Amino acid sequence: MATLNIRGKESWLVPILFILLLVFPLVLTRFYTYLLALIFVSGLAAMSLNLVLGYGGIYQFHHAVFYGVGAYGAALTITKLGYSPWIGFLVGPLLAAFISLVMGAICVRLSKLYFGMLQISLGSLVWAIVYRWYSFTGGDDGIHGVSMPDLIGSTTGSYYFTLLVTAACLIAMYLIVKSPFGSALQGIRDNPVRSEAVGVNVKLHQLVALVIAGFFAGVAGVLFIVVDNSAFPDMLFWTLSLEILIMCLLGGWLTFLGPMLGAAMMVALRTFASTFTEYWTLIQGIILMLVIIFLPEGVLGYVNAKFKQLGNLASGGKA
What we know:
Blueprint: H1 13-27, H2 30-53, H3 64-79, H4 85-107, H5 112-132, H6 134-137, E1 143-144, H7 155-178, H8 180-190, H9 192-197, H10 202-228, E2 230-231, H11 238-251, H12 258-273, H13 280-294, H14 299-318
Helix pairs in contact: 2-7, 2-10, 2-11, 2-12, 3-4, 3-10, 4-10, 7-8, 7-10, 8-10, 11-12, 12-13
């Protein structure tokens, strides 16, 4: 599997990119700063899905439920329980991880499509509770005007907070992927029978991966609250799960940063195409169809493959 692999002459790319992201709010308008923050949020949600989909081979078809639970956990802690936003920021991901643990314990007994179908059913149940519980969750109106600390209350402040938290989560996920646990998870993806034969507890590894992915999806949900100060039932609906899955496929679900690229493409497409036509989802469908046909490994997967070919040619020429 292709992963983030930056070394040698390429090691300067990461600090330069990070410096550019730090400078962008100083030169961009509030709208584009907000848009970049949304890309970070969507990208983190997609990359958390990729932990179990791309690296674990688990058919997680309703990942948005953990994203929404994280957002609602934080928003309700702040608005209904009256706790500090910083407490809410902790409650959201932990609640998402707990829901992921419960759903995972039920679904992990199944595999592949059966796992995905059962998870969609359980996720839809969580969505229905949020959608119907008007007195607590606000029902289909959602929760608006969630107060934020002054430090992150502005567009620029929320951008920097989102950037730093996203960067920390990416580092944590990268370390997990590169750890013995990550290697075992990829082995389970490639051959679960052989992994179990050599002593790997397949179901336990998959369950832990689901909880970790749910936690990071919850972090993404909290960051949406920071950026948008609101939460909606649609954040838990299966259509958003499909959109997050498309981000992974579009950017490259067999790469580490591919889902982030896919999120950037999806958010940009939704934002700009919708200003010209209400049928922007049709454009999205056509693009996805073309990518699946011509770039089945995703955009970043295709780029990685081409760079690898060029590297092999260069090494062959030197030889």
